[in-house]
C-alpha cells in the first residue's frame, strides 16, 4: 500500500496523529529533499524524488516486489490531488494501491490569510507551464484568480503580464510567501509595477482580486486614444467595449469636423461617443443604447471623464432614431439584428455630405451592409483590421491578437 501524504511548511507538526503514525510505520519514505528533511530520524529506507520519471519507475518496481503488508509513504505538498503529485501517481500506479491523506492546500491557506471567500476563485497552475491561461482569465475579467508560480512564472512575471494587457478593470495584487512556515509573508502591492523588480521566496502563491475601477486623472489622459482602463464596463463582460486601436481608426474614418451632430448607435459603454466628445467639444454626441445597464455605464463614464456633450439615449434603434436631430456623422457599433432597417433610417436622416461608419465583426452583417449600400447607391470603403498587442511573458514578449474587425465607411 502506498500512502500519499500531503504536508505543509510546518512539517511533521502539521500532521494529525493518525497520519503521523502512518508515516512512522512506513518501510520506505519517498519525497523531495525538503519533504524528507522533516523526518530526519525516520528508520525506514528513503527514496529522493529528484527526476520524477526515474523516481516513479523505482517506486513501481518496489511496489511490485513489496509484501502486501509493507507500507510505503510518498510525501508531497498540500493536497496531492490539487495540482500536485497525486494526478501523476494515479496515472502511473494502480489506484487500488493508493491512499491519499491531503493537507491544506496553499491556495486555501492564501485565501484564509486575506480573509476572502474563495469558492468561486479561478485557480491556475503556472508551475512548469505558460502564463497563457492566467492571461486569458484576466482578459475575461475573472473576479478571483489564484496562480501557482514557479521560478520562471514568478510574481514579477505575472505583474508584467498584467500591466501589459491594458485591461478595462483593475486587480489587487497579493503575494503569499512560505504559507504555513515560520517565515510566512502575505502582502498586497498597490503599486503593481513595483512587483516587477522585487524578489520573492520560491514558495509563493499570487492572488489577483478584481476591484472597482479607479477614477482616472483626467488631466493626465491623452486627448485622443484613451486607454481601455479609463472606462468602467460590464461586470460580467469586461471586454465588451470597442478597443482603443479600433476607436482610433473609427475616429479617422468618421472625418469629424467641429460643431457637428453625431449618432453613436449601439454605444455599449460609450467609449466611441466619449472619444468623439473629447476631441470635438462643440459637437453634440447622442449615445444610443438599448440596455439600461449600458446606458448607466455611459453616464458613469461621462462623469468619470468629465465629458458634458454626450447625451445618453435609452432606446432601441431604429425606432428611437426618429426622435433625434439629424446627424452629420453616424457610427454603428451594434445593430441588434436590425442592421438593414437601421441603415434605411440613417439614409433618410443623415445630412448632406454625411458619413456612416460601421465596425462589423461578422461576415453575415458585412454582407447585409454591402448589399444595402449597392442597392441604394452608396459609395463604400472597407478596412479589414487584424491587430495584435504585445504581451510580456516571463522575460520575453509575444503578440496577442485582438478580435478581427471590418470597418465599413459609407458616403454618398
Automatic annotation (TrEMBL):
Transmembrane segments: none annotated. GO terms for molecular function: protein methyltransferase activity; tRNA (guanine(46)-N7)-methyltransferase activity. Its EC number is 2.1.1.33. It comes from the Bacteria. Residues 1-187 form the Tetrapyrrole methylase domain. One of its GO terms (biological process) is cobalamin biosynthetic process. InterPro entries: 4pyrrol_Mease, 4pyrrol_Methylase_sf, 4pyrrole_Mease_sub1, 4pyrrole_Mease_sub2, CbiE, Cbl_synth_CobL, Cbl_synth_MTase_CbiT, Cobalamin_biosynth_MTase. CDD domains: AdoMet_MTases, Precorrin-6Y-MT. It catalyses: guanosine(46) in tRNA + S-adenosyl-L-methionine = N(7)-methylguanosine(46) in tRNA + S-adenosyl-L-homocysteine. Keywords: Cobalamin biosynthesis, Methyltransferase, S-adenosyl-L-methionine, Transferase, tRNA processing. It is an enzyme of class 2 (transferase). Pathway: Cofactor biosynthesis; adenosylcobalamin biosynthesis. Catalyzes the formation of N(7)-methylguanine at position 46 (m7G46) in tRNA. This is tRNA (guanine(46)-N(7))-methyltransferase. The gene is cbiE.
Amino acid at each position: 500500500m502506498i500512502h500519499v501524504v500531503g504536508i505543509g511548511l510546518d512539517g511533521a507538526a502539521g500532521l494529525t496523529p493518525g497520519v503521523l503514525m502512518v508515516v512512522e510505520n512506513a518501510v520506505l519514505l519517498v519525497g523531495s529533499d525538503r519533504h524528507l528533511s522533516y523526518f530526519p530520524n525516520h528508520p525506514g529506507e528513503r527514496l529522493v524524488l529528484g527526476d520524477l520519471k526515474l523516481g516513479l519507475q523505482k517506486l513501481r518496481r518496489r511496489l511490485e516486489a513489496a509484501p502486501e503488508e509493507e507500507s510505503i509513504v510518498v510525501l508531497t505538498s498540500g493536497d496531492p490531488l490539487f495540482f500536485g503529485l497525486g494526478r501523476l501517481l494515479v496515472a502511473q500506479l494502480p489506484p487500488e494501491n493508493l491512499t491519499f491523506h491531503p493537507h491544506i492546500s496553499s491556495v486555501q491557506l492564501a485565501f484564509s490569510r486575506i480573509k476572502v471567500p474563495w469558492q468561486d476563485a479561478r485557480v491556475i497552475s503556472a508551475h512548469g507551464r505558460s502564463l497563457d491561461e492566467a492571461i486569458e482569465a484576466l482578459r475575461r475579467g475573472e473576479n478571483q484568480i489564484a496562480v501557482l508560480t514557479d521560478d520562471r512564472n514568478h510574481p514579477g512575471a505575472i505583474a508584467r503580464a498584467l500591466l501589459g494587457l491594458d485591461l478595462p478593470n483593475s486587480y489587487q495584487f497579493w503575494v503569499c510567501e512560505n504559507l504555513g512556515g515560520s517565515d510566512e509573508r502575505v502582502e498586497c502591492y498597490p503599486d503593481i509595477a513595483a512587483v516587477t523588480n522585487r524578489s520573492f521566496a520560491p514558495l509563493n502563491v499570487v492572488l489577483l482580486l478584481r476591484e472597482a475601477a479607479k477614477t482616472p486623472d483626467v488631466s493626465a489622459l491623452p486627448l485622443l486614444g484613451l486607454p481601455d482602463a479609463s472606462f468602467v464596463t460590464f461586470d460580467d463582460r469586461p471586454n465588451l467595449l470597442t478597443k482603443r486601436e479600433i476607436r482610433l481608426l473609427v475616429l479617422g474614418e468618421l472625418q469629424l469636423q467641429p460643431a457637428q451632430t453625431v449618432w453613436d448607435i449601439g454605444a455599449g459603454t460609450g467609449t466611441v461617443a466619449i472619444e468623439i466628445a473629447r476631441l470635438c467639444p462643440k459637437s453634440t454626441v447622442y449615445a444610443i443604447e438599448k440596455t439600461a445597464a449600458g446606458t448607466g455605464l455611459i453616464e458613469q463614464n461621462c462623469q468619470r471623464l468629465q465629458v458634458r456633450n454626450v447625451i445618453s439615449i435609452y432606446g432601441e434603434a431604429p425606432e428611437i432614431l426618429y426622435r433625434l436631430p439629424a446627424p452629420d456623422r453616424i457610427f454603428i457599433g451594434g445593430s441588434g439584428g436590425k442592421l438593414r432597417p437601421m441603415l434605411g433610417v440613417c439614409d433618410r436622416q443623415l445630412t448632406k455630405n454625411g458619413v456612416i461608419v460601421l465596425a462589423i465583426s461578422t461576415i453575415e452583417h458585412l454582407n447585409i451592409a454591402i448589399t444595402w449600400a449597392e442597392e441604394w447607391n452608396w459609395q463604400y470603403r472597407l478596412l479589414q483590421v487584424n491587430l495584435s498587442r504585445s504581451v510580456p511573458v516571463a522575460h520575453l514578449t509575444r503578440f496577442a491578437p485582438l478580435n478581427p474587425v471590418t470597418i465599413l465607411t459609407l458616403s454618398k
